[in-house]
Amino acid sequence: MNVTSASDRLKKVMRIALVGIKPGDQVMLKGYLRILLRLEADLEWVSANNQQIDLFMVNHDLRHAESVQKLISSKPNTATIYTARSETENGYLSQDLLVLPLKDLEPLSEWLFSQLPFLSGVPVRNKASTAAKLTADVAHAYQSATDTTANQRVASNPPAQVANPLSGVAQSAQVLAVTISDTRMPLTLLPNLVSR
Question: Which top-level group of life is the source organism from (predicted)?
Answer without folding.
Answer: Bacteria
